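Backbone-to-sequence.
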């Protein structure tokens, strides 16, 4: 069964354009790692310096474990940490509580 998750991140206001540019050109090996982890339908929306992310996987915990073992994921998180107000925890961003779903 598909599991869904969403999160919010805050980018340093003076670094928003860098964050957006980085996501226009995500490293191919990072995209491969996300796909190999079983992550799909990954979307990030922007509101000012707040980013709302959403993605799906069959097993979110397995996807997180897989990514935690990928060197490219660590490098990506290190690069993004410089742009964010607060670094994403190693286990991933805190998920938002789902309050409504229309299937």
């Amino acid at each position: 069964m598909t599991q869904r998750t969403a999160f919010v991140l805050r980018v340093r206001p003076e670094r928003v354009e860098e964050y957006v540019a980085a996501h226009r050109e995500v490293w191919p090996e990072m995209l491969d790692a996300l796909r190999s982890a079983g992550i799909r339908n990954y979307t990030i929306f922007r509101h000012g310096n707040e980013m709302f992310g959403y993605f799906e996987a069959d097993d979110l915990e397995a996807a997180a474990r897989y990514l935690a073992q990928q060197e490219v994921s660590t490098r990506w998180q290190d690069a993004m940490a410089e742009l964010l107000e607060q670094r994403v925890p190693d286990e991933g961003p805190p998920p938002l509580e789902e309050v409504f779903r229309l299937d």
